[in-house]
Amino acid sequence: MALAHTLGFPRIGAKRELKIALESFWRGDSEQHQLQTTGSLLRQRHWQQQIDAGLDFVTVGDFAWYDQVLNTLALLGAIPERFKFKPSELTLSDYFTLARGSDKLHAMEMTKWFDTNYHYLVPEWTSNTTFEGGVNWLYEELTEAQKLKHPTKVVLIGPLTLLYLGKIKANADQTKLKHALDLLPRVLAAYQNVLKRLQQLGVHWVQIDEPILSLDLASEWLNAFLPSYNLLSQNAPKLLLATYFGAVNDHADLLHSLPIDGIHLDLIRGQNQLAAFTQNWPTGRVLSAGIIDGRNIWRADLDNCLEQLQPLHHQLGAQLWIAPSCSLLHVPVDLNNESTSITLDAEVKSWLAFATQKLNELALLKSALGTDRDALNSDVRQQFSDARIALDKRKKSARIHNNIVQNRLKELRTSDAHRQSAFAERIAAQAEKWQLPLFPTTTIGSFPQTKQIRQSRAAFKRGEIDNLTYLNQMRDEIRHVVEQQEKLGLDVLVHGEAERNDMVEYFGEQLWGYAFTEFGWVQSYGSRCVKPPIIYGDVYRPEAMTVSWSQYAQSLTSKPMKGMLTGPVTMLQWSFVRNDQPRSTTALQIALALRDEVQELEQAGIGMIQIDEPAFREGLPLKQKEWAAYLNWAVHAFRISSCGVTDQTQIHTHMCYSEFNDILPWIAAMDADVITIETSRSDMELLEGFGEFNYPNDIGPGVYDIHSPRIPTVLEMEKLLRKAREVIPDARLWVNPDCGLKTRNWPETIEALKNMVTAAQLLRAEVTKEKLQEQAQ
Ligand SMILES: Nc1nc2c(c(=O)[nH]1)N[C@@H](CNc1ccc(C(=O)N[C@@H](CCC(=O)N[C@@H](CCC(=O)N[C@@H](CCC(=O)O)C(=O)O)C(=O)O)C(=O)O)cc1)CN2
Ligand code: MET
Ligand SMILES: [Zn+2]
């Protein structure tokens, strides 16, 4: 009999209980013990769900107060020195200081977890980093599960992945660690201690996650696996090495050679990798088959899964484990909380499976394996049959096709992806029209999403206030945002995005081919969640989505008002997407919908339009050999969305959270007139590539980090701008924050922007002086 398990379960709670408890604690509205109770109840509930579904273990160690990487650092005691915390005495509030910063200390940097929309806190490595043991939370959670008599499997992030994901920093004395792997002996010693302790606590299996194996790994990293796992396998529980997010068949020999007890393979992202492994599978070794998609919400094709699993089961028997492709962290918790409505009707709902439903799929597969179809109990048979019917209906549904969209795709011409003129001509036309000062100041789009705004939207959704009341409340907010920007003296204004719940969900709600949920939350970082909309059919824009809001905002000011849209790649990347057609096709459909919106904005007198693409880099495949194909269609989709306007209309784009330097030629190929990017947290390091590459168009490098409540000083922003001037010509340089301001409050926002505008003014004055001096000479 095969076993069933999950690599991890969402921790946020089906009703975002953890988010609510965290934010209440941070506000000071509740005590630490109340937060701890919520955490404990959530863990218990999630373990019980795993048991009830029929899984063979509960997974312990997937819980984190903020982030699983930070939890690992807290466990090992590898706390960045600059915080001056004693690792073995780290408190929960210290932990939150690491994650969120304080008045005096920058928070740890946050970045994307592989190609997901989840963000982890980046370990900071220096030659002084120690790993001498930290908090006991993992052991306490384990005891908690054991007390409940659950069979347990513990999950840890693997040592090589942990090292790889960190960033090397200078010490206080400015010396730099040469290579993260120089820390390996210390890390391994720490992991050995953890494993020994887990063994003492009676743990039989530890799942050790090494997702870096699905990247293009340099040889020094690959070579570190065998010696590392030789050490780790001594005096330790059994180790299941988990790989996910891609195929690892290039490393099959290496993986075979490791002294481990099992391997998990992602059979969704790496469908064809099995053969490389099963040929000479080591006797006694477990194969955990990641057969249920942990990154998407479609109900599985159980018959097809079974077909793939049968031969494995035949070969491996009880050594076959059945699992989701990766942790279920990336999907919402429970479809059963969704009431059917026009946003998610019964038919579309029957096509879906969230984390809870996926547990059930795993259990079903387990019970069907090795049993004759006729011998299956009637309930299992019924569930297989239901799944089959739903899948069949989805395939044949008329709702997934839209002829208008299909025809427009066919009719696209090359010229549709080109602006009328080259950048030099466009920017001249735009300069003449707008007459902006040197170093124009602007913001990225959103202003604080206050409690009042959210409550008003919630009341509207519940039907407690009518359309007109809601409209007026949002208009009041827009008026307020415009007034504030005028007062601050910003040059290019935005309407503030008050009417949007989220930059992706908002558009999904207005497009055909999309469904959306009430509780389909997925953790993005810390307590912040997103509710990715679900693309099930051809994407079509029945009517304008943003025009009246932008038009209203423009009517309040004589300054340029940027229209604000979310780009095709980001719309795709941050939604749950169809698995029945290529991503590129869906992206192009979205691009066409956006193109119409862009043109309608232009006709309505909106002369600057920003098309955000923060997920452009995130969508890049993990393996370099797949980059070009992605970048080609992604750039094309952006250009289809943006190129339908006249030269005078200024197209902006925005990207954040990214390592841009490896894709600069493609960013340039997007040919936006202005790009605003996140650069402040890296101290403008990210900008250097743009300079070296001679990035041709206008750039606004972010001058302050909007993720922190800290108010940036004029001086520090001036300094960053001077750095920017070294690589970007003055005429091309804009001044703006790193990203949108929706997560900040008003007082912070005003203070920060005031300082930003002052910094820009000081710099302008300096340049004017320089010019006068040059003329005088
Ligand atoms: N999709 C997406 N991905 C992204 C980003 C993004 O903006 N969108 N930004 C980057 C960083 N990620 C972020 C992700 C989430 C949030 C965020 O603020 N999320 C909000 C939820 C936003 C939302 O959907 N809000 C809804 C529903 C809000 C809500 O909870 N309403 C209450 C009632 C209102 C109240 O009393 O507060 C309820 O329903 O009970 C709305 O405004 O309408 C949160 O977790 O708090 C910020 C940044 C990267 N990835
Ligand atoms: C994550 S990128 C955010 C861009 C969006 N226009 C905003 O300001 O919120
Ligand atoms: Zn951003």
UniProtKB/TrEMBL annotation:
This is 5-methyltetrahydropteroyltriglutamate--homocysteine methyltransferase. Residues 439-761 form the Cobalamin-independent methionine synthase MetE C-terminal/archaeal domain. Its cofactor is Zn(2+). Belongs to the vitamin-B12 independent methionine synthase family. L-methionine binds at I444, G445, S446, E497, D612. Zn(2+) 1 binds at H654, C656, E678, C739. It catalyses: 5-methyltetrahydropteroyltri-L-glutamate + L-homocysteine = tetrahydropteroyltri-L-glutamate + L-methionine. Catalyzes the transfer of a methyl group from 5-methyltetrahydrofolate to homocysteine resulting in methionine formation. 5-methyltetrahydropteroyltri-L-glutamate binds at R16, E17, L18, K19, K112, N117, R528, C529, W574, E618. L-homocysteine binds at I444, G445, S446, E497, D612. Its EC number is 2.1.1.14.
